[in-house]
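Give me structure tokens for this 129-residue protein.
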Amino acid sequence: MTRLIAVRLLWYVGVGALALVAFFLHTQFGVAVLLSAIAIYIPLSMLGMPLMAWLCLAYRAEAGGPPLPPAWPGYLAGVTGIVLLASYHALADQDLAESGVLLMLVAVDLLLARREAAQIRRLAHHRAR
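Here you go.
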């Protein structure tokens, strides 16, 4: 259980480091884009991702369902975020860059929730024995 908490806290430290880098390094799209994406992401992660983890755990309850929910939503969010961030160079729209950063943060969070659900299932299986 401590691994679950440690990985999640390490991810939040990484997001905090991204915010500090935005302050000290001059990125192409500015501090406002990164900090506003992080400001949207943190409440989303704190409030919405526990629901996502619960849905990941409940996914197996269906008869004959796979052991884990598919990973494609996380990968799709990540690829879409990268495309939006790359399109900032062509269109010079800061909203695209902000949406791209936000989607990349959410993608990692979705994949973490999937991984956490797998570890919780393993723990529950070992305790049921």
